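okkk here we go again. third time trying to get the S-adenosylmethionine bound version out, last two times i messed up the smiles copy paste (missing a bracket lol). double checked this time i swear
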Amino acid sequence: MENKQPSVMDLLIETHAGLERQGPGSPEMTRKALGFLDHLDQISHAADLGCGSGGQTMVLAQHLTGAIIGLDLFPDFIHALNENAQKQNMEKQVKGVVGSMDELPFEKETFGLIWSEGAIDNIGFEKGLTHWHGFLQKNGYVVVSCPSWLTKERPAVIEKFWSDAGSGLDSIEHNVEVLQKCGYQFIASFTLPETCWTDNYFIPREAALKGLLKKYPGNKTVEAFVAENRDEVEQYVKYKQYYGYVFYIGKKI
Ligand SMILES: C[S@@+](CC[C@H](N)C(=O)[O-])C[C@H]1O[C@@H](n2cnc3c(N)ncnc32)[C@H](O)[C@@H]1O
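finally!!
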């Protein structure tokens, strides 16, 4: 197993599966977003889409009484979530399933809340909000975070980075308009602080990257993968005033 030539996807999963989260965020910001929702106790079913290993799913579970389904493309992440739920004796409330956010394997109008941190941009903000609308009950909430432009100035290097990653950035104003166009009342939006990127994501990820370099000495694919991840950090440090992760909260009309 150790001698197998890892693909970039293998490395992405190996780096992230052991982390508490797979993108910028924090328990405090998950709680802040939850604070905009009324009647949490009346939500009988919630979904956390693109949940990764479920750092935020477990925070949701501390504040909701209903069932929570975490969904992610990658079995390793779902395995980590289910293991974590079991360790915390929450396996009756929290269940992870493998699936894709753009083809949800659920009945229509199942959920009082659809949550998604740092994941909707993988399928597109508008496409995700449109598809998920049908799975929410009337007056159900959608809460998503995604990278967004914070200024009118848009450095080309950042534009390229995110479009190469498969997700173009849009401004907060644009995303709010899209949310409304997709059939939601706009409730709130707010930008995540820098520590959500640094302390909660880049620093733990760097430790995992160092582990990869040790495990695969001299492997060019691994070295290129690590360099690319480190470039992302450098870009963030240099250009963080222009873009950030933003939470968007809407209510199905
Ligand atoms: C940046 S990570 C965020 C993970 C987690 N929500 C967090 O904030 O720590 C994006 C997640 O979306 C998942 N993902 C990407 N495309 C997906 C899809 N089409 N369906 C389901 N999950 C997907 C990835 O596997 C990854 O776990």
